[in-house]
Design brief:
The chain is an alpha/beta fold and 236 residues long. The mean pLDDT is 93. The chain has a single domain (41-235), classed as Vaccinia Virus protein VP39 (Rossmann fold, 3-Layer(aba) Sandwich). The chain has a 7-stranded mixed β-sheet, sandwiched between helices. It has a two-stranded antiparallel sheet with strand order 1-2. Helix content is 33%, strand content 23%. The protein is globular, with a radius of gyration of 17 Å. Helix 3 packs across helix 4 (83-91) and helix 7 packs parallel to helix 8.
Length: 236
């Protein structure tokens, strides 16, 4: 492993990998859209399929930035390592970047990743973590909210099941309970014409779309067969 500093370190990393830990936890980093982010033990590992969400969000953020002297405001809700927000801001050429996360270990990791971009990580449960100063200002809100039904967690690969926080995986009885919370609370935080993007699965997508409609957002689905990815995009 190229990240090993000496033979002892290499042996330790190989042993940790052999124990079933995700490679990203062993290395201490993951790469998304060519951007490297720190991923500490116990923190959700960014998936390649999230490239679809990131590219869609960056496109929308860039459009906001091109029409204004001010940077777009980007919020990564339930951010884990903060990878989505970091990559969106990077691809968009800059942003006022905020993130929120309830898991303490993830908050520490995300703060390290957002610091070079001047981003702020707020600790708490979804919107309850956010300062009132963000109300009505968010141009692009991204959320990789969990979408695995609770009774299917046991079928996930052991790397996820045993080494990532359950709060990042468990989407409730039908897989969209957290997504509903994100969608229902989004409008007060979104700027006029602002967008909410949530990664979901093809199976859950109709339920995710319904959650957006119930929240008063105009929504559509974007898919990428090569990535096996599905994102619902809503506009205030």
């Amino acid at each position: 492993m190229s990240s090993a500093v000496d033979d002892d370190d290499l042996d330790a990393k190989v042993a940790r990998r052999a124990s079933g830990r995700p490679l990203e936890h062993v290395l201490g980093w993951a790469e998304l859209c060519g951007v490297r982010v720190a991923v500490d033990d116990g923190v959700f590992v960014p998936r390649r399929r999230s490239e679809l969400l990131v590219h869609e969000a960056a496109r929308l953020a860039s459009a906001v930035g091109s029409g204004s002297a001010a940077e777009p405001v980007v919020l990564d809700l339930g951010c884990g390592s903060g990878a989505l927000g970091v990559v969106v801001a990077t691809l968009a050429g800059g942003a006022e970047l905020h993130a929120a996360e309830i898991d303490p270990a993830s908050v520490v990791c995300a703060r390290r990743n957002l610091a070079p971009l001047g981003g702020v990580v707020h600790h708490g449960d979804l919107y309850a973590a956010l300062p009132a100063s963000l109300l009505g200002r968010v141009d692009v809100l991204v959320a990789n909210a969990p979408y695995v039904p609770s009774d299917e967690i046991g079928f996930l690969p052991a790397e996820a099941r045993d080494f990532e926080p359950r709060v990042a995986l468990d989407g409730g009885s039908d897989g969209v309970e957290v997504q509903r919370r994100v969608a229902s609370g989004a409008s007060p935080w979104l700027a006029p014409g602002g967008h909410l993007l949530i990664e979901t699965s093809e199976r859950q997508a109709p339920l995710t779309l319904a959650a957006f409609a119930d929240a008063g957002l105009t929504a559509h689905r974007v898919t990428d067969d090569d990535l096996g990815a599905c994102v619902v995009v809503g506009r205030r």
